[in-house]
């Protein structure tokens, strides 16, 4: 600005007129100034942290504010967006604001992600339990025997007496391990058996002689034609 507070134009020395810049805009003298501190990311993070600390000093313990983003905190959630005054006023009047609608969609997706994580956790616990049970069944029966100490050498004048071994009870065969693959193979086998049985029945049915082709319904003297009325008879031939 000049002494009177008016902008100073930039004069072109060739033409003696004010320079015209891009988009036919007049060029005025400018002075370089230091960058605004609000443009610094570090300054904004410090400002947000101090604001959160001031709020948490007045809020109860269950309502704590964290100025960090979900990504910085390691939270796998979709952040909502700023709705603004106009969108909320539109919702109050019974309409639907685009920004509010977008936040509702994000919240629904977050609920779905939470449900999927909970389901994955339960499935992981069940898989761990099944794996533990399978390892326990595969372990040999009987408690592990402690290592026996070396027996002393037998005296030459003593003879070892034969010991009667008590009869052992018959052991039950190990129960089959019902894994997911075994159940799937068993289901496929039963399905193949059912399909083969149905094909066999269909083949037997097709091999039987067709009675409608052997009857001669044109002969009234045929005893099979008696009582059929030459119409929609009891056999449903539709003559």
Structure report:
With 239 residues, the chain is mainly alpha-helical. Among the domains are: 1-33, no CATH class; 83-130. Helix content is 42%, strand content 0%. It contains six helices and no strands. The protein has helices spanning 41-56, 70-73, 85-92, 98-138, 180-207, 211-214. The radius of gyration is 46 Å and the shape is elongated. The relative contact order is 0.03.
In a nutshell, what does this entry contain?
The protein is mainly alpha-helical. Among the domains are: 33 residues, no CATH class; 48 residues. The protein is built from 6 helices and no strands.
The end-to-end span amounts to 111 Å
Strand count: 0
Mean pLDDT: 76
- Spell out the helices and strands N to C: HHHHHH
What structural category do the secondary elements indicate? Answer: mainly alpha
**Helix share, percent:** 40-55%
Residue fraction in strands: under 5%
How would you describe the shape?
Answer: elongated
Low-confidence runs of at least 5 consecutive residues: 211-217, 222-239
Rg estimate, integer Å: 46 Å
Assembly type? single chain
H/I helix tally: 6
Reported for the largest beta sheet, the result is:
none
Topology, please?
Elements: H1 41-56, H2 70-73, H3 85-92, H4 98-138, H5 180-207, H6 211-214
Please supply descriptive tags for the structure shown above.
239 residues; disordered C terminus; mainly alpha
């Amino acid at each position: 600005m000049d002494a009177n507070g008016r902008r100073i134009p930039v004069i072109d020395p060739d033409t003696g007129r004010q320079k015209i810049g891009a988009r036919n805009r007049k060029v005025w003298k400018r002075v370089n100034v230091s960058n605004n501190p609000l443009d610094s990311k570090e300054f904004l993070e410090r400002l947000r942290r101090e604001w959160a600390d001031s709020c948490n000093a007045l809020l109860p313990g269950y309502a704590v504010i964290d100025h960090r983003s979900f990504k910085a905190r390691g939270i796998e959630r979709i952040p909502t967006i700023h709705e603004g005054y106009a969108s909320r006023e539109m919702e109050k009047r019974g309409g639907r604001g685009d920004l509010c609608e977008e936040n509702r969609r994000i919240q629904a997706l977050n609920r779905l992600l939470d449900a999927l994580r909970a389901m994955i956790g339960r499935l992981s616990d069940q898989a761990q339990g099944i794996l533990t049970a399978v390892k326990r069944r595969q372990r040999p029966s009987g408690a592990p025997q402690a290592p026996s100490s070396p027996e002393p050498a037998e005296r030459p004048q003593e003879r070892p007496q034969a010991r009667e071994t008590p009869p052992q009870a018959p052991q039950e065969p190990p129960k089959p391990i019902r894994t997911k693959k075994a159940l799937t193979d068993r289901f496929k086998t039963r399905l193949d058996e059912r399909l083969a049985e149905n094909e066999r029945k269909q083949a037997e049915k097709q091999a039987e002689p067709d009675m409608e082709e052997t009857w001669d319904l044109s002969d009234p003297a045929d005893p099979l034609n008696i009582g059929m009325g030459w119409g929609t008879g009891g056999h449903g031939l539709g003559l």
